[in-house]
Structure formats: C-alpha cells, structure tokens
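thread: overnight batch results

M.L. [08:02]
morning all. the overnight job finished for the chain we discussed friday. pasting input first so we're all looking at the same thing
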Amino acid sequence: MAQLLDGAGKLGWVLLTAALRFVFMVLNNCVAIPSYCLYLLLLQPLRIWDRSMFWHIEGLMFKWMLAMVSSWGWIAGYTVTEWGDDVRPITEEEAMVIVNHQSTGDVCTLMMCLQDKGTVVQKMMWLMDHVFKYTNFGLVSLIHGDFFIRQGKAYRDKQLIYLKDHLDQYYHSRDRKWIVLFPEGGFLRKRRETSQLFAKKHSLPHLNHVTLPRLGATQVILKTLSAQQENGSVGIEAVTANQIGNKRRGLQWVIDVTIAYPKARPMDIQTWIFGYRSPTVTHVHYRMYPIKEVPVEAEALTDWLYQRFVEKEALLTYFYDKGSFPTLDGHKVAVSRDMTLDPVWLCIIQSFAFASGYMWYSVFLYLYCCLF
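M.L. [08:03]
and the structure it wrote out:
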C-alpha cells in the first residue's frame, strides 16, 4: 500500500508540473511571438532606412526567442555536453551545418547548444520540414527567413529550385552566417528501413543509428553559397562579384554535428514541453571540415556525404557502447564541455517578453477604448 501511495504521489507530481509547464509555455508563446511580430512591424521604417540594422535587431530578438525555448528544457534538467572540435573560434565565419535527425528534440537541442556561440543563432538560417511552418514557431521562422522544404519525389526538383531562389534572395541580404540542414530528410525511425533496403540494393554500408543522406539540398547550398574551383571542390579563394560587393568570403566550413541521446532514446518536443522525463544530458559531437576539402559535383559529393554518415554511425555505436565519444586525433583522452545557460540572462529575457506582452496589451486596450 505504501508503495502504491508513493507511486501515486509521484505520478500526481509529474502531472501537476507538466500542467503548470504547459500553461507557462502557452502564456510564454502568447506574449513573446506577438511581441516579436509587433516590434518588427513598428521597425519597418528602419528596414527602409538601414536594412542591416533592422536585421541585426531582428536577429537579436530571434536569438532571445530561441533562448526561451531552450529555457523550457533547461529548467527541466535537460542539458547538453559537447565533444569534438571547438566551433566557437569560427562563429563569425560562414558555415554549412549538417546534423543527424532522430526526433523533433534535435532542433531544441541545437537551439540550446548554439546559444553560447556568439552571433550564430541570430545570423542562422534553418532548413526544416514544411510542417513546422504551421506550428506556433512557424511565423517567427518565416519572418526570420528560414526555408521550409516539402519531402517526397513529387516535390523534390521544384523544392531545390525554390531553395536556390530563397538563398539568392535572403541569405546574403540578411547577413546570414550559418545554415543548418538535416541531410537524411526525415526522422531516423521513419527512414531507417527504407534506407537499409536502398543500401542493400546498391551495396552500400548498412546503418542502424543514422540513414543514408540525400544529396539535393546540400549540393544546392554548396553551389549557391560557395565558388566552384576547377577541381570540382569549393573554396574560399574564389568568390562571386556579389560576395565581393558585400565583403563576404562565402562558405568556409562544413560542420558535421552528431547528436546522441542516452540509451538511444531521442528527446521529442513533447518531453521538452511537459518535462516528464528525468533530467537528461544530450551529447553533441562537432567535426569541422574546411570548405576546400568538400567536393561539389554530384558523384564525389555523394561519396563524401555517405562517408560522413558512416563516421556518424561509428561515433554513435561507440557512444552507445561506452557512454562517451572517442578521442580526437592527437589527443590521449576524449574532452567534453558542459554547455550551460545563464539563469540571470534567461530571467531577463523572459521578463522582457512578459513586459512586452503587457505593454502591447495596454496599447491595444487604449486604442480600443479611444475608438469605441
């Protein structure tokens, strides 16, 4: 009986905290997202007068929005430990970030672990499935200039054309630095069987923890944002006239990010919101490749991408067996870094969001009373 009462008490506490978290997040969205949109609407004259300053301010607010999402998980004890190369020295350089995709929690994990990487978050462009356009955060991403891509053979060719046009129109004009994509084109649980059948048919490696990546979006990004050299690779030495005019060097790095969850149990957005899982550390491994080492022609780039995901498979296999990632070349032991968020900074951002929401409510209430 005592055990039953104890279990019922724990369940009740979990349900209560989940309900309180849900109410807080609904309120958080109700004040933060409209305030973000209204501030940008108020700043439209600045967009005409000084576009760079407008998008700088928008980027700051976008980073704050992502910090709020990060705080939801951080408060529940969901933290990140980083491994591999240190990407902080290249945060002001342009990079393409390729990430393995296991669940909706991958995006939240990236939102958290990139918060302390300088201006990366505010100058970042995301490529995500089109269904995210219809979520609570979709409007913010749409204004920020992220690209929503539709999956499936019926849409593939047109989507790549749309992606190139989107990059030409928004990437440089909004001073973007990093562009994030998930080359697998879907969640691991949904694509694994199809990927393994494709690998067996074409004598490719059998993968369990990742799936074979798709080429399309990666190649479009490399061709659009970097200059092609005679050897079929891309490099920082040759840049387009448009990039010179904007004092930009083009893509200089590809950052290979591998996300690993303890016991191979991915964190989904529902867990991030309700916080019903016990405190969990998600592990993120970085590996950097200079852009001149990356081929751009279809066959060579396909082989290069496949090799990266074979390496991801080996990294994840090692992690699930040992509980850590292997050592880097030239190191005797694997070095990890705990990524932390400043609670004072998070409180300031949340306070600003709720104060803004109250201010806009008061403004509209005053206008309503004046008119009616």
